[in-house]
């Protein structure tokens, strides 16, 4: 599904190398988790994959189902099936949440040469999916992320994911700022979307999210590289012993 | 935004890739109403003299008093100078190098049947998206009013260069007692009303452009709503400038008698031409006791190309006079077109407890310049006014909000609230806010809030990561910014305005 080879990335305006040769294969139907200390390049990886400006790829490739992602505009990557759940979802004053969702859904459909979703069909689908995430009608009407609590913002990200039905989902620290109940709700939303044809890359600082979203593979990232990969037990290991041991072991 | 000078033939400058060139070309062609109708016209000779004023008056079959009124305005105009206080910069206008009257030849005699209507005029309105049924009536066919209308009824007066082609639904409106026709028709059919109200809100000598308009005005709309009548449908006027080197000087007069209500819409477009064209309109609204008028404008005159060549100079005087107690007026404007806009729809709050509202979206892209705002003149007791202005600047455009709130000594316990927001797209444009506040009593309250912000890269990336292209993303964010004003527009206009906001900003990012 997602294939990253030897990815090197630096900041566009600064001579600072952030990713120093990332290799990663996420298979369809699998959940991969990336853990790592602050500043290891986890969020940068998610931004570079989704096409945010300000970064320069100096070497390596990233492909989604064999198609080169790095040459595409952000919206083309989205239409190709890539989705990033933001760590800090952005507020857009005056734009209703529902309008935003519908514009996004139809933009992707148009890009793929599919017919646009009618207003009534859209309403039906969004209401059903919002209900599962305990998002009420009021929240759908409010401007995008304006005045949303931390938990509401993250649930809203998952609602977008559910509506857009991407092939490859990247979750960037979706657990940050969530209490246990909110985290469970978000995790349920994600788990409901797990399917044979869909890959997940879950970026997190803490093991606790992985209690709810069970990963197939766990990677440890440090200083711009994946330094160790393993099963779910690797996350528990980090939880107990921190990153220092692993770093020392690899060095 | 990339600024590239294109060589028309070879097309590509060194180091510029073809995609960029194509993109820039396309932006220049984005104005969707830039085509023109090739049609035989009758022109008055170029230039402005008392004879031209007489000729315009004669073509409209006007009574003597109006000819004299125009000539007096012409004499006044000669003594006036163009205002220079606005933050707009344009080459000197040669007022003798303009046509002041242009009429399609076929309109010299009003057509009575489909066979007589010039098909080119029909095609013009079809192409502008006016529904066929209305289009038939627009072209002035008598009797078509009786055919059933599709969808919601909106009566239309269509003004093509200097003449009105026709007004729809006149019979049905007549049953309700509402008069809706072109101003030239009103002069002929309802001279007593025209004489009573014309020039009473915007006096002949008000300002340079209003005085010019008073001398040479051709067509525009006239509305009279009798006491206690709620106008059964929206009224609208569609202005089209087609002829080259021709100014359009429309004059609109709306009278809402005691306890009446009317909602009026105005739309305007013009062909894409290299020469700038002048548009100097005057709109007067009289609102009597307990009456209410809503006046909405979607102004989409040709804005000129991305280098500032061509476009309409839009110098407009619009004013509403709340003469009676509890009279209400609401101006809503979406200004997306014109090379230069100079426009301040104002409210005179004369009656006690009268109310004035002004909602504005002004978009200036490329080399456009807009200096627009309002005046709220509080004269009566407990009068209220509200101003919501959203200015959007992109490209190298300059956008100025200029507003006056004046509380006179007798306007006790009056209130004003002003909110003025500016949004910048890119780093080469400007936004300016110039509020004037005068308070001459100590029981009134004036509030002013202003913000300036930039379209945020993070917002755009967020939208794009969900699948919207860059222009769709900008349009979404900007429409969000304008929401308070869009909501004040009638439904159909709000949709059109939203789409227009998107089109006006195409090519503003990247």
Automatic annotation (TrEMBL), chain A:
For the keyword DNA-binding, the answer is no
* SMART domains (UniProt xref): AAA (SM00382)
Recorded hits in CDD domains, A to Z, give: ABC_FeS_Assembly
The record's listing under InterPro entries reads: AAA+_ATPase (IPR003593), ABC_transporter-like_ATP-bd (IPR003439), ABC_transporter-like_CS (IPR017871), FeS-cluster_ATPase_SufC (IPR010230), P-loop_NTPase (IPR027417)
Query: So which domain of life are we looking at?
Result: Bacteria
**Annotated Gene3D superfamilies:** P-loop containing nucleotide triphosphate hydrolases (3.40.50.300)
Entry keywords, A to Z: ATP-binding, Nucleotide-binding
Which Gene Ontology molecular function entries are recorded, alphabetically?
Answer: ATP binding; ATP hydrolysis activity
The family classification in the record reads:
Belongs to the ABC transporter superfamily. Ycf16 family.
**Name by which UniProt lists this protein:** Fe-S cluster assembly ATP-binding protein
Recorded source organism is Sulfitobacter brevis
UniProtKB/TrEMBL annotation, chain B:
- UniProt-listed Pfam families: SUFBD_core (PF01458), SufBD_N (PF19295)
Task: Specify the protein name.
Answer: Iron-regulated ABC transporter membrane component SufB
Q: What is the lineage of its organism?
A: Bacteria, Pseudomonadati, Pseudomonadota, Alphaproteobacteria, Rhodobacterales
Q: Any idea where the SUF system FeS cluster assembly SufBD core domain is?
A: 239-481
User: What SUPFAM superfamilies does the database record attribute to this sequence?
Assistant: Stabilizer of iron transporter SufD
The record's family statement is: Belongs to the iron-sulfur cluster assembly SufBD family.
InterPro entries in UniProt: Fe-S_cluster_assembly_SufBD (IPR055346), SUF_FeS_clus_asmbl_SufB (IPR010231), SUF_FeS_clus_asmbl_SufBD_core (IPR000825), SUF_FeS_clus_asmbl_SufBD_sf (IPR037284), SufBD_N (IPR045595)
| Biological-process GO terms, alphabetical | iron-sulfur cluster assembly
Task: Tell me the ranges covered by the SUF system FeS cluster assembly SufBD N-terminal domain, including all copies.
Answer: 175-230
């Amino acid at each position: 599904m997602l294939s990253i080879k030897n990815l090197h990335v630096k900041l566009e305006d600064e001579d600072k190398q952030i990713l120093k040769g990332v290799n990663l294969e996420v298979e369809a139907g699998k959940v991969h988790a990336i853990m790592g200390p602050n500043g290891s390049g986890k969020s940068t990886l998610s931004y570079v994959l989704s096409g945010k400006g300000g970064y320069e790829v100096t070497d390596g490739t990233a492909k989604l189902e064999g198609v080169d992602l790095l040459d595409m505009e952000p919206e083309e990557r989205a239409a190709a099936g890539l989705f990033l759940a933001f760590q800090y979802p952005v507020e857009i004053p005056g734009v209703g949440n529902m309008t935003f969702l519908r514009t996004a859904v139809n933009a992707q459909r148009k890009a793929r040469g599919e017919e646009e979703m009618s207003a009534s069909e859209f309403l039906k689908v969004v209401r059903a999916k919002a209900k599962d995430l305990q998002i009420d009608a009021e929240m759908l009407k409010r401007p995008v992320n304006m005045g949303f609590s931390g938990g509401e913002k993250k649930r809203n990200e998952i609602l977008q994911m559910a509506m857009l039905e991407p092939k490859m989902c990247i979750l960037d620290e979706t657990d940050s700022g969530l209490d246990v109940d909110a985290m469970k709700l978000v995790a349920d939303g994600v788990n409901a979307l797990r399917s044979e044809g869909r890959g997940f890359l879950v970026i997190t600082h803490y093991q606790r999210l992985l209690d709810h979203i069970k990963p197939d593979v766990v990677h440890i990232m440090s200083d711009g590289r994946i330094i160790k990969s393993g099963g779910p037990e690797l996350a528990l290991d980090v939880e107990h012993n921190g990153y220092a041991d692993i770093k020392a072991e690899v060095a | 935004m990339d600024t590239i000078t294109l060589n028309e033939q070879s097309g590509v400058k060194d180091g510029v890739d073809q995609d960029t060139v194509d993109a820039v070309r396309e932006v220049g062609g984005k104005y969707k109403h830039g085509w023109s109708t090739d049609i035989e016209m009758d022109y008055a000779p170029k230039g402005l003299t008392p004879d031209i004023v007489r000729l315009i008056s004669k073509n409209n079959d006007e009574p003597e008093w109006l000819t004299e009124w125009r000539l007096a305005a012409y004499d006044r105009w000669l003594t006036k100078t163009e205002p220079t206080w606005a933050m707009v910069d344009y080459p000197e206008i040669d007022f003798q190098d303009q046509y002041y009257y242009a009429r399609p030849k076929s309109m010299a005699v009003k057509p009575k049947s489909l066979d007589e209507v010039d098909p080119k005029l029909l095609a013009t309105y079809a192409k502008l998206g006016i529904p066929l049924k209305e289009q038939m009536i627009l072209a002035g066919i008598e009797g078509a009013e009786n055919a059933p209308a599709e969808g919601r009824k909106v009566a239309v007066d269509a003004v093509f260069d200097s003449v009105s082609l026709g007004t729809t639904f006149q019979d049905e409106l007549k049953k309700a007692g509402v008069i809706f026709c072109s101003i030239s028709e009103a002069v002929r059919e309802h001279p007593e009303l025209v004489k009573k109200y014309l020039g009473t809100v915007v006096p002949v000598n008000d300002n340079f452009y209003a005085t010019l308009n008073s001398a040479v005005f051709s067509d525009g709309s006239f509305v009279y709503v009798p006491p206690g009548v709620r106008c059964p449908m929206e009224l609208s006027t569609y202005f089209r400038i087609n002829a080259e080197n021709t100014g359009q000087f429309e004059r609109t007069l709306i009278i809402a008698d005691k306890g009446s209500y009317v909602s009026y819409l105005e739309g305007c477009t013009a062909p894409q031409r290299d020469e700038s064209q002048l548009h100097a309109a005057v709109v007067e609204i009289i609102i009597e006791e307990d009456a209410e008028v809503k006046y909405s404008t979607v102004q989409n005159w040709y804005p000129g190309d991305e280098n500032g060549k061509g476009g309409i100079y839009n110098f407009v005087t619009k004013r509403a006079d709340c003469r009676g107690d509890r009279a209400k007026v609401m101006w809503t404007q979406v200004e997306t077109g014109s090379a230069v806009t100079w426009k301040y729809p104002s409210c005179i709050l004369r009656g006690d407890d009268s109310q004035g509202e002004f909602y504005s979206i002004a978009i200036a892209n490329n080399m456009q310049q807009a200096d627009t705002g309002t005046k709220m003149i509080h004269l009566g007791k407990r009068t209220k006014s509200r101003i919501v202005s959203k200015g959007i600047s992109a490209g190298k455009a300059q956008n100025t909000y200029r507003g006056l709130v004046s509380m006179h000594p007798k306007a006790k316990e009056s209130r004003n609230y002003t909110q003025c927001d500016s949004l910048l797209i890119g780093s080469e444009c400007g936004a300016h806010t110039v509020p004037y506040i005068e308070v001459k009593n100590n029981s009134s309250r004036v509030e002013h809030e202003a913000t300036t912000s930039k379209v945020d890269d993070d917002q755009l990336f967020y939208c794009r990561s969900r699948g919207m292209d860059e222009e769709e993303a900008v349009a979404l964010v900007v429409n969000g910014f304008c929401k308070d004003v869009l909501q004040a527009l009638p439904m159909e206009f709000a949709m059109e305005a939203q789409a227009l906001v998107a089109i006006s900003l195409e090519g503003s990012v990247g």
